[in-house]
Amino acid sequence: MLDFFTSVTESQSYNNFSMKEKTPIAKINLRGNLENKEFVSKVGKILGMILPNEACSTSNKEKITSLWLGPNEWLLVSNNEIPKETNTYELEQVLFDNISKTNLGAITNVTDHFTIFKLSGSNIFEVLSKGCPFDFSSEDFGDNKVVQTILNHVDVTIHRKNENDVDLYVRRSFAGYLWDWLKDSANLI
């Protein structure tokens, strides 16, 4: 069973900015070589979609979203909540059997490693800009883009779904700290 502890137990709203933790959401790290046709074919058949192959891009289907993290790394995220009482995910097992066991790539369940803050409102990027060196106004950071960066000294992954809807991935051990920082920053808008 998942040891599902979080220091974030509330949702917050301030001046056209709101945040809440999305939980529990399955997250699987996938590594492999896009030049290996067998890897690409098997993953495509299992997921029912093509992995994003351009920097900062995403792809999604009804049940899953794939975030590009690097030339050979993706984060597969469930679009639906999972029961807290479970510790097995069908997709993880299917990928493990077809990718890891055949030495085509690596599958790692990172569900407990990361938490997701759902940020919404028109002031998201104003709040994030207070502690982040990334230029959120860049034309390259449009809808359905993802970036790995630093937010107030914490490594984060930011998935921009659209200008008013962002998922912020943070290591669970830093979640409480970053949550408090976001509340303070949003209060100062």
Kindly describe this structure.
It is a single chain. With 189 residues, this protein is α+β, with helices and mostly antiparallel strands. The protein has two domains: 14-22 and 113-187, Probable tRNA modification gtpase trme, domain 1 (Gyrase A, domain 2), CATH 3.30.1360; 25-109, 2-Layer Sandwich (Alpha-Beta Plaits). 22% of the residues lie in helices and 38% in strands. The chain has four helices and eleven strands, in the order βββαβββαββαβββα. The protein has helices spanning 37-47, 90-100, 124-129, 175-187; strands at 12-14, 17-22, 25-32, 58-60, 64-70, 73-81, 105-109, 114-120, 145-151, 154-162, 165-171. Strand 1 (12-14) and strand 2 (17-22) form a beta hairpin. The chain is globular. The mean pLDDT is 91.
